[in-house]
Amino acid sequence: MTTEPIAPSPYVPGAAPPPPEPPRRRRRWPWFAALLLLPLAFVFLAQGLTVQVTPREATVSLSGGPYFPLADRYLVLPGTYTLRATAPGYEPYRQPLLVEAGSPPQVRLTLQPAAGEVTIAVQGVSGTALADAEIELADGQVLRADGGPLTLPAGPQALTVRAKDYEPQRLTLTVAGRGRAQTALVQLERRWAELALETDPDGAEIWIDGEPAGRQTPTRLPVLPGPHTLEFRLDGYSPRRLAVLTASRQDQTLEPLTLAPAPVQLRLTSEPAGAAVTLNGRPVGATPLTLALAPQAPYRLEVLKAGYGPHREAGTAPARGTVTRELVLEPELGELRLSFAPADATLRIDGMPSADTGPLFQLPARPVTIEVSKPGYVPFKRTVTPRPGFPQALEVSLLTIAEARRAAMKPTLTAPDGQTLQLLKGGAFTMGASRREPGRRANEVLREVTVTRPFYLGIHEVTNAQFQRFDPKHRSGDFEGTTLEEPEYPVVSVRWLDAVRYCNWLSDQEGLPRVYTLEGDEVTGFDPDATGYRLPTEAEWAFAARMDEGGPPRRFPWGDSRSPEANRQGNYADDTVRHLLARTIPGYLDGHLATAPVGTFKANGFGLFDLGGNVAEWINDFYGATEEVLGAKGQDPLGPGRGRYHVIRGSSWMHGQLVDLRLAFRDYGEDGRQDLGFRIARWFEPQEVTP
Known about the structure:
Blueprint: H1 29-45, E1 47-54, E2 59-63, E3 67-70, E4 73-76, E5 79-86, E6 93-99, E7 106-110, E8 116-123, E9 134-137, E10 142-144, E11 150-152, E12 155-162, E13 169-175, E14 181-187, E15 193-197, E16 199-200, E17 205-208, E18 211-216, E19 219-223, E20 226-233, E21 240-246, E22 252-253, E23 257-258, E24 264-271, E25 276-279, E26 282-286, E27 289-293, E28 298-304, E29 311-316, E30 322-328, E31 333-341, E32 346-349, E33 352-353, E34 360-364, E35 368-373, E36 377-378, E37 380-384, E38 392-397, E39 399-400, H2 401-407, E40 412-414, E41 420-424, E42 427-431, E43 447-451, E44 455-458, H3 464-470, E45 478-479, E46 482-483, H4 496-510, E47 516-519, E48 522-526, H5 538-546, E49 616-622, H6 627-630, E50 633-635, E51 646-649, H7 658-661, E52 666-669, E53 676-677, E54 681-683
Parallel strand pairs: 1-7, 8-14, 15-22, 16-23, 24-30, 31-38, 43-50, 49-53
Antiparallel strand pairs: 1-4, 2-5, 3-4, 5-6, 8-11, 9-10, 9-12, 12-13, 15-19, 17-18, 17-20, 20-21, 24-27, 25-26, 25-28, 28-29, 31-34, 32-33, 32-35, 35-37, 36-39, 40-41, 41-44, 42-43, 44-54, 45-46, 47-48, 49-51, 51-52
């Protein structure tokens, strides 16, 4: 900080100070003039404002600018003011007021009385205060009557008063307002009617519309308007119901009701339970049950259960109360002699294992379920009813699964082309021919064969009509002017491959798995487990042709004689084609120059037609000729695993030589011929059998 030096003044001893100057007088008159001019300017510029307020005792005030009151008028300058008016008992008034130059305003206003307090008392019948009453104002607001005084605007007010079980009342109150307290009394009218009720005897409990009324007869019961159901209950008496229709405030006195004694309760049980019960000859249910008996009335009771002796009784019911009866039924027994095989099978009687294997059983004289079972066998189950004094016998032989499947086989099937297939269950037989058999050829190897798999075989050869559904373009042709084309004639001139395709087509029609897998013109697979259509195996064909009567194998279709003993035994080369064929059967006539309709001639013992004669038939197996290839014996043989040619079995209408007519005759080929057709086969598809 910089300090400035203060220069001292020279001191002169004894020197006196100079005399002061005389004061100057101020001029005050302009201010007084201005003050005198302001009121004159206000009076000159001001306008008169008239304010009239009802009530006249109200206090009026202005704010927002200068004004000068003159009685009920005010002198005001142009501008915006706030006008206020107040009076005891009235709502205060406060509004802005615009004063414009040259337009002196006049204001008239009426103050609104302040709200008043109204206490509303609501009473019901006999002056009862209804504290739960509700008051609904005109604006929808709902208040409780016991909530104290109501603050309401002055003037007429519309109200609705409501209380439970009372008629609502609408009224208009004139509210004095200005803070005054008022009271109002509202008397409501009841909605209910009173029912005077009596019963004989007294003391019945009253229920209304399914709910207890909390009263007993005799009584006066308040009931709201409308339909109602009254019920009267008293121990020892049957309930009484009564329908009533009530209107508001319209009391009724009902006729006294006489209560009838209640039925006596009979509680009935039995050992065993489930016994049928009849009361007075009428079925009423099964034990345990409760029955209603007429008081002091006679009754007849019968209790029955199969296998037990009946219970019968007659009596008189008491006047009232409950009767309990606990019955023990005596069993009745019947005799059943039971034998079953295998002997180590399990026996169950009514679902319970039996340690007693019999053969004599004493069983209740009622339906009894007998079960015999063993793993690997089809279980046996049957219900029998033993009868006292009438012994019964039951023999049970369980079937193995295989036996059951065979038993379930259908004897015939119908293919999609309409053909009928016959069931053959197979068996053991000698296939081929002995070296000593006249006409025997080297390819007829003698061997023991067993056909174990049941199979179905077409009873007829496939006809032209059936094959043309598969191949409409196929033609069997004619022979020396004789047609081979008739619809019922067997189809000929088909290759082995054509026959296989036909079988697959049939399988597809029925949704069965194909036996043959084809790739172009070659069969690349054979499924021995498939149940679709196929050609018969050589073993199946030989069994069907030679074992039709269950005896030794037949040599010829007609038997063992070297030639048919009569005409029309089958369609072979007869005398009518002697000029066309090199070998015929001397003196034989079959009535047909070439092929004949299938089924023309007699069927063999299996019901199969033309296994000899008419046309030779394609076989499923590849052709083999030696014992090494065919095997000395076999079970369900399928022939060689591969080869160029396939087996052909059976004679035809072209065969008349002894060697060809034998059922052991075997041929082979690849292409079709005019005397070569086929028939279809299937393995059995077993039904489901549960062990």
